Amino acid sequence: MLKIELLAASQGDLVAARTQMALSLGWHIVLACLGVGMPAITLFAEWRGHRTGDPAYRLLARRWAKSMGVLFAVGAVSGTILSFELGLLWPGLMSRYGEVIGLPFALEGIAFFIEAIFLGIYLYAWDRLPPVKHILSGIPIVVAGVASAFFVVAANSWMQAPTGFTERDGQVVTVDPWAAMFNPATPPQTVHMILAAFMVAGFLMASVYAVAMLRGRRERYHLLGFLVPFTIAALVSPVQIFVGDWAARFVAENQPAKLAAMEGLFETQRAVPEHIGGFVVDNELRYSIEIPYLLSLLARWNSNAEVIGLNEFPPDQWPPVNIVHWAFQIMVGIGFGLLALGVWAAVAWRLWRNLPKTRWFLRAGAVSGVAAVVALECGWIVTEVGRQPWIVYNLMRTSDAVNPAPGLRWGLALLVVVYAILTVGTVYVLRRLAATPIPVAPQERDVTDYRVE
């Protein structure tokens, strides 16, 4: 009886630890995406303002810069929480493999400080430096933000494809930290994440101005506020589709159980169709729409290729299939939806040199930001939940890495309170910034060539 009670308590702590990590990562990753994409979009707006003399660009850049400062500060808090959680929640991982994955975390810390220093210079020197020098002071922010994302995702990539070390009798004896950081999963996963960051930042920023335009704001300021980030995100979208295919092909080669869960595939087959929708019931995917041969073609570039099913693996090594399958479906569906939205805008611009003159386009633009965030979160669910039960793929189970000390549930409860306070505070400050009047020249007050029906 005592053994059963201890096992139940341990499993409860594992659930609490995974939930806490999921909440922290899911909350922080949105801010991280804004930290990667927003500086580049802001710099572009400032550069266009100085190049064209258009005050609307400069006003947008200034407002976005202030928001960047707020989001960076909040992201620093949530990022610090995540760094502590690695040691507090997963001591088994860090004690055994900490020296293997320490390099990307150390480099990420350097990138973070560079970003913080130059962000301070950029914000403080807005009216104190010549325009060209001020724009140049923002370039390190962009580079450091992208570098931070690269290093953190490289560490996570190692957990998907562990390399760069030798292990003997359960102990790491030799380490090649560069080989560990540049593991086989690093190229597709880091590129996929960085592009996703630009999509999330662009569509989120554009959605704010789409809402304002739906409410009747037609100043050039709001039109450019929508057009600049939306265009950048829309240009990234088709590239992301191809990179996503690259990442999925890596999964097919190196993590066949994850691919099988993504597709709800239980039996190893040839000429496997792609399944859209459906639910797994009694180890069978039901109610899905099949596209013949497509999965084999996408996974192996061969319509008759074999794809391994979950039944090739012990059931205790299966990830939660319905969760992974539907997260993948939602991510892909939203990705193609955002691609279609960009194509819609591009066709209208090609034909009429203007955005589509329908409220439905603005409505779609208004929800594109939330949709991009949902796709981002679903992508990380596929990546992290799809790897279960392994915290280090095929080497260490998540249950073996969790902190065995009792009380992790209290940490989860405290974290919920902290993030609730951070969320309310961040939204409040951003709304106050948005409410600050923006001076607009009389000739800029209306965009006479853009009307929606």
Automatic annotation (TrEMBL):
GO terms for biological process: aerobic electron transport chain. It is a multi-pass membrane protein. It comes from the Bacteria. It holds the Pfam family Cyt_bd_oxida_I. The keyword Heme applies. The chain crosses the membrane at residues 25-47, 68-93, 105-126, 138-159, 191-211, 223-243, 323-348, 360-382, 410-430. Belongs to the cytochrome ubiquinol oxidase subunit 1 family. It is found in: Cell membrane. InterPro entries: Cyt-d_ubiquinol_oxidase_su_1. It is an enzyme of class 1 (oxidoreductase). GO terms for cellular component: cytochrome complex; plasma membrane. GO terms for molecular function: electron transfer activity; heme binding; metal ion binding; oxidoreductase activity, acting on diphenols and related substances as donors, oxygen as acceptor. Its EC number is 1.10.3.-. It comes from Actinopolymorpha pittospori. Keywords: Cell membrane, Electron transport, Heme, Iron, Membrane, Metal-binding, Oxidoreductase, Transmembrane, Transmembrane helix, Transport. This is Cytochrome d ubiquinol oxidase subunit I.
